[in-house]
Amino acid sequence: MSRLGNQLITRQPFSSPVDVVRHFGALQAQDYLGSLWALGLRTAKSSEARIEAVLAEGSVLRTHIFRGTWQYVTPADVRWMLSLVAERVIASTASRHRELGLDAKTLGRSVELIAEALSGEKHLTRRELSVVLSRRRIDTSDARLLHILGHAELRGVICSGARRGKQATFALLAERAPKAPTLTREQALEKLARRYFGSRGPATERDFGWWTGLPLREVRQAIELARTRLARTIIDGREHWSAGEANGGRARRGIHLLPAFDECLIAYRDRGAFVEAEHVRKINAGGGILKPALLCNGRVVGTWQRALEKRRVSIEVRPFRTLTANERVLLNAAAERYAAFLGLSARTVVR
Could you say which of 32, 75, 132, 215 has the lowest number of CB atoms within 10 Å? Predict the structure, then answer.
């Protein structure tokens, strides 16, 4: 259960979502609504409104970093993390950019115009930035705008701004994280290894390489640099690393509702510690999708989805096996916890 403790599933020692993100280094934020619960699940006495307030004020940022996907990161960590992987991710997009007609000149000019439009702590929506670019005769049709914005994030120019209603906005990273420190590459590698294995260990170098997108040479260098702060264990004949235990908070055993793309599943190349082989396709049918999962005593035993009503959230669960009477009690408790996070009552339906 140490992995679940380090993942802050069975224990929630932090009362602030900022501390949770700092503990992880970067926390997957692919699906926005699901990512709010990923933070809420790991934060003591939290609510969706409180998480969104932290995001609005910029204490936690949402941007593209590792593997070119969305993550939550603190302003203090964003620069040195980008310095490790941004160029590699940008290089991986070259072929797609050629298909879209996005050459270096177009991307560079687009980033300049976006930075100019956001200057002075302006927060603009995707549509508003599209208008800015279109007025300067830069085509934003098809997927071009998404790639332009992603490129600007990886270049360390923009990040998430405060949401406007249900719409996401973008802001200048220099204004949201004005004092973000930079580190040498060796310092950054060492720090990243400690964050990863401290929040997701025990894990293998293969897991670390998958999550970071770093080449094996740098994965091993990072582990070696952090070696005095890491613990080595052999599990099923393979070398695993960890960095201490997450302590504090009341232990929560039993059943947990994991959101889509949760770190419990996405942080590892090998998900066998959580999911039986015959059930992998039920949560990851392809296309990079990881469904919300029902976790029971450290194993995925089903999937779930929500339906919002006026004062209630209906949680439909599809277990892979028949749940025991006690497991149904624990499921109802997990559903009530999620509903409380949303400020609603809960209704649980088992299919």
Answer: 215
Output the pLDDT for position 312. Answer: 97
pTM of the model: 0.95
Measure the CA–CA gap between 297 and 14, rounded to whole angstroms: 22
Architecture of the CATH domain 185-242: Orthogonal Bundle (1.10)
Q: State CA 144 to chain mean position distance.
A: 24
Q: Is the dihedral of CA 340, 341, 347, 351 positive or negative?
A: negative
**How many whole angstroms separate alpha carbon 67 and alpha carbon 85?**
8
Contact 115, 77 (CB under 8 A): no
* Cα 329–chain centre separation: 29
Q: Which of 68, 137, 128, 130 is nearest to 106 (CA)?
A: 137
Residue spans of alpha helices (H) in the chain: 2-6, 17-24, 32-42, 48-57, 78-92, 94-100, 104-118, 126-135, 144-154, 173-176, 185-200, 205-212, 216-225, 263-266, 280-283, 325-342
Going from N- to C-terminal start, the domains of the chain cover 2-176, 185-242, 255-350
Classified by CATH at the fold level, domain 2-176 comes out as Arc Repressor Mutant, subunit A (1.10.10)
Residue with tokens 């603190």: 74
Characterize the bridge pairing of strands 312-319 and 70-73: unpaired
Residue 95: pLDDT above 90? yes
Helix axes 325-342, 32-42, angle to 10 degrees: 110
pLDDT category at 81 given cuts 50, 70, 90 is: very high
The answer on pLDDT for 250 being more than 70 is no
